[in-house]
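Hi Q.,

Before the meeting this afternoon, I wanted you to have the BIS(adenosine)-5'-pentaphosphate prediction in hand. No need to reply - just skim if you have a minute. The sequence and ligand are here:
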Amino acid sequence: MNIILLGAPGAGKGTQAEKICEILKIPTISTGNIIRAALKNGTEMGLKAKSFMDAGKLVPDEVVIGIIQERLSESDCKNGFILDGFPRTIPQAEALDAMGVEINKVIDIEVSDEDIVKRMSGRRVCEKCGASYHLEYKKPAKEGVCNLCTGTLVQRKDDHPDTVLSRLKVYHEETEPLKDYYEKQGKLTIVEGQHDIADTTAKVLKALED
Ligand code: AP5
Ligand code: MG
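Predicted structure with the ligand bound:
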């Protein structure tokens, strides 16, 4: 199954992608994670994306479309995939359609802006492997240390409150119209993501079965 996870920054796309990936045994493709890895490795693409990302803006469409085209051509995507954070604009969705990629389900995880701001301030990520935690809702076994690789947990630069507000603005202006786009294609299911992580997972899995 080819799945898109839509939702505001911090709605829980990455968290839910991790669960679905485990259950359905299909890879997650997160443009945010790919860009952060490129940045860490100092590649040209990573450096180009840095200023946009740090300011809470979207990286230009042609850059992310190129990333996705390359990633989807890899063999592990043959039996399905989960897109986390792509598409994020109408031109990106159109590019995906133009590539002839068939999407089966689009799940939109809805969380209020107020809760998003709260969630982001508590998120911590591993600086080594990128795994994501929360000070209150998804605590690591040992404070400040990644469960998976023992790396140090840090706050993402774009999770500072002012940048989160810019990201939310960009989301409402550029990404939210995708709900209409996929509603018209009959692929959209809206899932309430306001409650705890397990509750959202149950709702996402139910939406995938329907
Ligand atoms: P990206 O990394 O994709 O960031 P984002 O979409 O802003 O989303 P997040 O990763 O912040 O949130 P999430 O929905 O994955 O939430 P999470 O599960 O972590 O992109 C970053 C940047 O890269 C963009 O700003 C842009 O510059 C660039 N970029 C990426 N893709 C692009 C594209 N296609 N086009 C252009 N530019 C692009 O959850 C958040 C926190 O809440 C965690 O701490 C988690 O533990 C906690 N949590 C999750 N669910 C719950 C719950 N139900 N209850 C309580 N806590 C919860
Ligand atoms: Mg994410």
